[in-house]
Design goal:
By secondary structure, this protein is α/β, with parallel strands linked by helices. It contains 11 helices and 10 strands. It is about 35% helix and about 15% strand. Strands 1-2-6-5-7-3-8-9-4-10 form a 10-stranded mixed β-sheet, with helices on both faces. Helix 5 packs parallel to helix 7, helix 6 runs antiparallel to helix 7 and helix 9 packs parallel to helix 11. The radius of gyration is 21 Å and the shape is globular. It starts with a strand and ends with a helix.
Length: about 400
């Protein structure tokens, strides 16, 4: 394989020779030949109902729509073990891995196709730690100075035209940044201060622009004759609080919409709950490749024309895990001032904190082997913390 690497103005473009995507065998059930995960950063699960997102709504009607898809708490550690391995927030690796039991040496969905079939990644910021084994890449700068969504879409469409990648991820950043602008606005005279839904708010405008970019992607797929061959997931990395941004203790920050359309997907279906770790197992099942070894999301069987057998019913595991972490952090914050007055309580609290597997230990969660064991462990720790607090 011949590689060309070009570095310029803070972004990286890796160009590889074109590799055949391959087609489904003759007589076999029709599989998608391409798959795209299209992420609109910080898109609220309320946005499809409250905003005029014409292209997203059309895709929802064309395929299957999940009103609320949960991801792990949207934390972005800037120190500790996480930063030794990652340059992005915790939810982003979970989406591409199909698990929240992330390993320091985690494999991602693009590696399921590498090196035989071309993959591509276009994002506004430097998601370098989840960029391994993409053939074609456009990443730009730190989170504080991302490229605009238009440039990211330009490269996503260029990759599509030139290489017809079997898998592509596109991540638009502006909607999330616009939500943060509402929360950070200091002037009480600004109508959209701490209200992303206010008329003409930055969030409304950014979401509308992202929907136009989605339309450009759909138009290009049609022009290239790939629309009926492409499996498309449209979602977010995390949700958005009504006041803007994504504080991890606000449940609205845990939830985002998920629309799935393409070959093998049922039309006009609507469900209430999914989890973002379900995207990769579903994509890999439909594309006929093995998912990362530790992917433990479920195939979205209810969305499929021909679902596999033995898929368990949906359980709200990530929603519970998030609530356990939030509630444990609240109890610890309440107990610390009291612990300073009582050596006995201080020792008990320190023991409970050592046993607690919160976000600062996210890269150690995989030691439990299953999410059920992690949940059971953190439930017990939460009960200990509650008992230390005593009666109200």
């Amino acid at each position: 394989m011949k590689w060309t690497v070009v570095r310029s103005l803070g972004f990286l473009f890796l160009a590889a020779v074109l590799l055949s995507a391959g087609a489904a065998p003759s007589g076999a059930a029709r599989r998608p030949e391409h798959a795209v995960i299209f992420i609109i950063d910080g898109l609220s699960y309320k946005a499809p109902a409250r905003l005029e997102l014409r292209n997203l709504r059309a895709l929802m009607a064309e395929g299957t729509y999940y009103e609320k898809s949960y991801n792990i708490l949207p934390a972005d550690p800037r120190s500790g073990e996480w930063t030794r391995h990652h340059t992005c927030s915790i939810p982003n690796p979970a989406i591409l891995a199909g698990t929240v039991l992330l390993r320091p040496d985690q494999h991602y969905v693009q590696q399921c196709f590498f090196p035989d079939r071309t993959t591509a990644h276009a994002a506004n910021v430097a998601y370098a730690s989840i960029n391994s084994r993409f053939h074609l890449t456009f990443l730009h700068g730190p989170e504080e100075s991302p490229a605009n969504d238009g440039k990211t879409m330009y490269w996503g469409l260029e990759f599509l035209r030139r290489a017809r990648p079997v898998f592509m991820k596109v991540h638009l950043q502006h909607t999330g940044n616009a939500g943060a602008a509402s929360r950070n606005e200091s002037s009480p005279s600004i109508p959209w201060r701490r209200n992303i839904w206010a008329e003409n708010s930055p969030y409304r405008r950014a979401a509308a622009q992202a929907d136009q970019h989605l339309g450009r992607l759909l138009d290009e797929l049609k022009a290239l004759g790939l629309k009926d061959k492409t499996l498309l997931f449209v979602t977010a990395d995390h949700g958005q609080a009504d006041a803007g941004w994504h504080p991890y203790d606000d449940e609205d920050a845990w939830v985002m919409p998920l629309a799935v359309a393409g070959p093998g997907i049922r039309a006009g279906q609507r469900f209430e709950y999914a989890e973002q770790i379900d995207i990769v197992p579903t994509l890999c099942h439909l594309m006929g490749v093995k998912p990362p070894k530790n992917a433990d999301g479920r195939v979205l069987a209810e969305a499929l024309v021909s679902p596999p057998g033995g898929v368990p019913p949906q359980r709200k595991r990530i929603k519970e895990l998030n609530a356990l972490i939030r509630d444990a952090d609240v109890l610890i914050a309440k107990l610390r001032p009291e612990a300073e007055k009582s050596p006995a309580l201080k020792d008990k609290l320190a023991k409970a904190e050592r046993e607690y597997y919160g976000l600062e230990h996210v890269l150690q969660w995989h030691r439990f082997g299953t999410m059920d064991r992690l949940l059971a462990h953190n439930r017990r720790v939460l009960e200990k913390l509650a008992s230390l607090l005593g009666p109200p």
